[in-house]
Amino acid sequence: MKPQRHREEIWLALEIGNSRLHWALFIGETLYSAWDTDYFPESVIQHLAECQTLHDLLLAISPPHQQGNFLTNTPPLCAFVSLPPCPVLLTSVVPSQTAIWQTYPNTRVITLEQIPLKGVYPTLGIDRALALWGAAKTWGFPMLVIDAGTALTFTAADANESLVGGAILPGLGLQFATLDQQTGQLPLVEMQSFPSLPPRFALNTKEAIQSGVIYTVLAGIKDFIEAWCDLFADGKIAIKGGDRTLLINYLQVLYPEIAERLIVEPNLIFWGMREILIGS
Asked: Which of 29, 38, 209, 217 has its CA 20 to 30 A from that of 59?
């Protein structure tokens, strides 16, 4: 019976995002490790279904730099690696990828209907709902979640655990890429090329693009946060997503009083998935 108990205690969470796969390994309710990978071709997923042990599965889905200590050298994970592959909880915003991953055995897909958030509309993104639920169940309602990813989203719930609403706009990278792809003369601006704030009034095209995108995004974030605080003076604010660090650094320079209010947590969706698992 002991191996079966161990299998129930260890599980994988998989978030299929717009750009990448986001993974988390849980032991019970504790998040042991989190990492990202590129999408896998269907042939690789079929190979994963043939893995005989947890060790083989983790070896196949973990980044090369994590495969040493991550797999066998660090307790408590080393107690599980010889067991059969564990269950996978999956959430996705890419239907074609969802269909592929459902061929993997012992997969449970989390849907919007399973999230106890009140007042949810049918087309609300499952990623937004899970991140909001995970943040609010961890730090309390009312809660506003800012996701600085491929899209920049705002999603909020009140003290009654009911959806207040939110907003969606293109994220930083998408805005830069669109200017490059949809214009004849404007260059592609790489995100990594400006670790510090650009000049607001630029004297060259590259910095003019940086200024236009960065300062309007920051002003928008500031405006949404101020509007949130007017509605809920005691409301919490959490931020996640790949651009979170860059945006927080900028906010600390321009609006330090706002930056201080932010709860920075990249794993909000995994916290939401954990809450769904605990409650089921």
From this structure: 29
